[in-house]
Amino acid sequence: MTDGKTLILGIESSCDDTSAAVLADGWLLSNVMASQEVHRKYGGVIPELASRAHQQNILPVVSQALVQAGVSMSDIDAIAYTRGPGLLGSLIVGTSFAKGLAIAADKPMVEVNHLQGHILSHFIKVEGRDNTQPQFPFLALLTSGGHTQIVRVDDYLNFTILGQTIDDAVGEAFDKCAKMLDLGYPGGPIIDRLAKEGDPNKFRFAKPHIEGLDFSFSGIKTSLLYFLRDQLKEDPDFIEKYKNDICASFQKDLIDILMDKLVKATKQTGIKQIVAGGGVAANSALRAAITSEGEKRGWSCFLPELRFTTDNAAMIAIVGMYKYQAGIFCGLDAAPISRAADYKL
To answer: Cα 6 to chain center, whole Å?
Structure first.
């Protein structure tokens, strides 16, 4: 399976998931993840706890990824790691480990932008699966963590941001809604589940009017906050009575905002190859909306496997493979970059 093939070890530690993966010429050999349950009781990720958990998890996760792939470090051609964006403490753990491993094993390092990983996750090949891949150029609707963007992709390493949020990300809007309704963390999957039992047309919230392809989600969060405040004055049990309808309606409005900009981007560029990436790409209603719009407008749509919507190392390894093939490496002086604005896509 691995003879003569390029083997990339990927390491991901941008937030609260520690992950390691091995790819052979883009084929998935392993993708190991260790999630951190400790954050649930706090209603969000606590950076200090996240970095400590990474320190505990990273060695066993990398070791397990190599074992599952049936390879050793001597077989690996390069180590790809997440340089950013993300939580600085978490990135430091992954970066430091990658550097130490690179020195010990005498392997080159490849730095990877986490957001590029989400976009190129569609190029990971998996045995027994239809591995049809998007054709260049394509448009990516990227909804990852604190980022919401529409990106034009002209080649494996050629990205142009056409639109992005000017304030909050759509994932943050989902989590904020869940917090207002006291649903738990992470909020997105809970809202998705409850929305299936609700009426998406029951309530309406204020949508932003932003020119061009940029997004804004702060206003709709405020609209929900004031709506709940006013309703609870009239009926203290309002949330409990209409929880499913609130989730369905708020989710519909968020997806409408995303789809409106995506449709506008396809019209402006003429591109009909569409991919989705990032955590919110796991949302069933968003996936259905992209599929439905694609059928109506003649798009070729690519939705990631659910396991590749989370922060995983396979997507870091696939970017690493293309950088390795292009001869793009980094030195031991490469420091983590926490802010997306400081790390060119």
So the answer is: 25
Rg (CA), the chain: 20
CATH class label, 138-304:
alpha beta
Q: In 130-283, which residue ranges form alpha helices assigned H by DSSP? A: 170-180, 187-195, 218-234, 238-269
Which parts of the chain sit beneath pLDDT 50? 39
Position 16 scores a pLDDT of: 79
- For residues 19, 25, 27, 32, the Cα torsion angle rounded to the nearest 10 degrees is -10
What's the CA gap between 240 and 243, in Å, rounded? 5
CATH superfamily of 7-129+310-342: ATPase, nucleotide binding domain (3.30.420.40)
Do the Cβ atoms of 175 and 192 come closer than 8 Å? Answer: no
- Separation of alpha carbons 76 and 30, rounded Å: 13
Measured CA to CA, the distance from residue 19 to residue 6 in angstroms comes to: 20
Side chain identity, residue 296: K
- CA-nearest of 252, 228, 223 to 240 is 228
pLDDT in tens, 218-249: 999 999 999 999 999 999 999 999 999 999 99
Task: Tally Cβ neighbours within 10 Å of residue 197.
Answer: 11
- Phi, psi of 56, deg, nearest 5: -75, -35
Question: In the prediction, which pLDDT does 145 show?
Answer: 75
- Burial call 290-301: b when 16+ CB within 10 Å, e when fewer: beebbeeeebeb
Scanning the structure block, which residue is given the tokens 């206003």?
219
Residues 6+ away with beta carbon under 8 Å from 294:
274, 300, 301
The DSSP letter of residue 310 is S
Length of the chain in terms of residues written: 345
**Contact present, 258 and 214 (Cβ < 8 Å):** no
DSSP state of 202: S
CATH topology match: 7-129+310-342 vs 138-304: yes
Q: Residue 266: what residue type?
A: T
Which tokens in the block code for residue 342?
């400081």
Per-domain boundaries in the chain: 7-129+310-342, 138-304
DSSP string, 206-243: PPP--STT-B--HHHHHHHHHHHHHHHHH-TTHHHHHH
